[in-house]
Fold this protein.
Amino acid sequence: MTVLSGESLINDAASLTLVRVFTLIAAGTSLTIWQDLGIFGLAIGVGFAVGIVLGVAVHWIRMRINDPVVETIMSILLPFVAYVLAEHLSGSGVIAVVTAGLYIGYNSPKEGYATRLQERPLWTSIDVILEGFVFALIGLQLKTVVQDLLESNRSLAQTLTAAAVVLVVVVLVRPLFVFESYARNRINGRWLRPLRVRLSRGHRSLRWLRGTAEPKLNWRELTVISWTGMRGVVTLAAAVAVVSDPVQVKAQDTIFIIAFVVTVGTLLLQGLTLPFVIRALQVQDPGESEEDVRSEMRLNQRTTEAAIALLERRRPAWAEQYGHQAVDSVVNRLKARLERQAETLRRDAEEEEDEERNAPMRLRGAQIQDIRRELLDRRREIVLEEREKGNLDEEVMRRVLVTLDAEELAMDSAQASRSRS
């Protein structure tokens, strides 16, 4: 939700700073409040600057090379470059990676569709592999860390007590942040957004000042958002980054156990109870699905009208360049195709609404998708049969399969968006 815009960056900064403070305390370093603020400001400022600079540079390059493979490789290398560079400049590598990722992700719709189609399954797979790998290493290392702690002069009970206190603080700070951010953004939207709109009016370069209007949320919805503060790999990565600092730390096992308790505690406590909290607070919107369908119809209508208007506006220039007769034929055909697509989408949306009211008389969307998948599978079988018979060139076969795959991808994407709504 927009009320939590930039929340990942703030949470990562808080986690990193908290662990660094524990590191310095464990190392026996005495700090003043100004030194604490200096550490915080340096970590956040340098990390943010490195992340935003690299994000802007990589996005600028990706917008111009038009090569999905190279663009994907750049997105894979970006986190490593951002982390190493930020740490080398005494900043936060975690913040740099998060900042660069937020910028690239926000601007990805401006890039080529082939890159998005290639990166989506790739990053999903990498995410699963890395998370599984990290938690596996945590489990393998936990026994050694506990043994080192028991062999030292530090008390396991005191370490677990400190970890429990940190866990409670992490859980309680999030509701304060969510409710305060929502109240502040609503106030800014009521009093400051009209001023920003007036200032940016007529200046395209200042449109970013307008921002977006915050949705109106009640206390139940904000409570559910507050309860979704599960920690994960970022917390552990921050702990590892602090342990590797130049400061000589003798309590690395303590820092690791605290990060481990916070991560596992939030995942188990909040993750397992989140469905119960949602049901208990009755946070649901019965009309959300219908509203999403209507919004989708309005968006499709706007895009179709804009495309038709572009055809009419560009018709004279195209006619002068390519010839009136040829351009008129193509433009009329494209207009008819766009109008048919818009009508088909409108009819499909109406049929989906009818399915909810007349379920026994119509097939549901999932059932229709199953039938379409059987048809696509049969078409693929024919393609392979023709290849085996030697009647089909390999390159032609692959082009046909790409078309069939794109059709099934569009179908799966539409079904996934409906299921999420």
